[in-house]
Amino acid sequence: MVPRRPGVLDGRADRSALQPAIGEPPRMTSSWFDLARQSILNPQAAAPLLVATSLNPAVVPLTLALVAVLNGLLYGLLLPVDFFPGGFASPIVLAALVGAVVWGSAAILAVVGRMFGGTGTTTTLLRVTLWLQILRLAAQVVLSVVGMLVPALAWLIGMAAGIWGIYMMISFVAAAHGFETRLKAVGVVGVTFVSAVLVLSVLLSAMGVAPVEV
């Protein structure tokens, strides 16, 4: 039997190679670029692929460190020095803070999700959070370049990306917790956001960091 080429079926466009057939378990794409594209265009289909991917245990902590460092460097380059109070202007301190926030957010997502009947672990939610952080970081770089050329366009794209990013987060959280409906994921994301803001505010206050005056 001659194998059929993926992408063409009886003269019609076949479904994406990233999308598993009905009844098949999700399978990982051979290209992270393809998964990134699918995550942006169809996050509901891409989320189960990421969650079901088998990774080396060392990948997640290494990715967390990389994301923290890249975010620290990006914020250090884009934002003015006087924007950060005290010693937070240092890229090293920023990287440590970003890493703590990302890990803490994943932990809260896991705990709150289980309160809603989910099954996701902190490791799974950390994988999801890191993946979305990588996509957000890439989008931030693109927006920075566009902002230097056409500031108004960058603002519009940024608004659209922010709204779509919330939908992506809901889709990935739903997949990580095994929710049958994304409505529960909306509640998890909302409660997590409020909890993270409260925890961060308490920590910053305990460290003697006052709110930035505008």
TrEMBL record:
InterPro entries: Yip1_dom. Residues 38-202 form the Yip1 domain. Keywords: Membrane, Transmembrane, Transmembrane helix. The keyword Transmembrane helix applies. One of its GO terms (cellular component) is membrane. The chain crosses the membrane at residues 58-78, 90-112, 124-146, 152-174, 186-210. Coiled coil: none annotated. It is found in: Membrane. It is a multi-pass membrane protein. This is Yip1 domain-containing protein.
